[in-house]
Amino acid sequence: MQHVLDIQPVRLPARSVHRIEGSKGQQVTAVSGVVWLTQARDDRDVVLSRGESFILDRKGLAVVYALKDAAIVVGPAGHITAAAFDPSAIQSAAA
Asked: pTM of the prediction?
C-alpha cells in the first residue's frame, strides 16, 4: 500500500481533465477547488469541493474535470483527508 505521505496532489487548471484508469476502490479527494467526477457505465455525476471525497466503485475509466482551478489526490480509501495537504502550497506551486 502506498504511504499517504508519498501521495502528491494533481493540480488541475480550470476546464482540464484528469483520467483515472482501473482504480476501483481508490478514493478521490478534492484538496482545493471544485471538480466533477464520472465513471464508466455510471449515470451519476459527482461534484467535489475542498475536503470532499468519493470512492471509485466501478472498474474502468473515471474522469475528473476541473470546474475551476483545483487539486485532487487519489489514494487508498479512508486514508486521505484534504487537511493533510496545504492548499496554499498547492496554489502557489500551480501559479
From this structure: 0.81
